[in-house]
Amino acid sequence: MGLHKVPGSKSYLAEDAGLKDLGTSSAVAAATLAAAQRLAGNAQAVGRGTYEAAPSTVTVGWANSRRAGAVVRESRRDWRDTRDAILLRVAESMKVRGK
After folding, report:
1. Which member of 51, 78, 94, 97 has the greatest number of CB atoms within 10 A?
2. What is the pLDDT of residues 18-75, one digit of tens each?
3. Domain extents for the chain?
4. CA 97 vs CA 18, 54, 86, 87: distances in Å
5. CA-to-CA distance for 3 and 47, rounded, in angstroms?
6. Residue in 64, 62, 56 with CA at minimum distance from that of residue 28
7. Residue 72: φ, ψ to 5°
8. Reported pTM
9. For the chain, how far is it from start to end, CA to CA, in angstroms?
10. What is the DSSP letter of 6?
11. Which of 60, 78, 61 shows the shortest CA–CA distance to 69?
């Protein structure tokens, strides 16, 4: 597709193929998995359930293209973690701390 002007910008030129290459790269996959593993580890330390991180592909953008991502899930549930929203609280605290 090549470079094209982005509406509303004066000099920015976008290349959609480059964004797709970046989103599907192994470096982005490793970075998202590392972040998910840290989130799972912090939730594991605070909660009573068992949390795990796994690589995943996500659908994004106007063309619904598939990109590298990761997911954190509670593999062994505990009702107290659900009641206390452990995973959400850990994610919020990590966002506030900037980590």
Report:
1. 51
2. 777 878 888 989 999 999 998 888 888 888 888 899 999 888 877 788 888 898 888 8
3. 13-97
4. 31, 23, 16, 16
5. 48
6. 56
7. -115, 130
8. 0.69
9. 36
10. P
11. 60
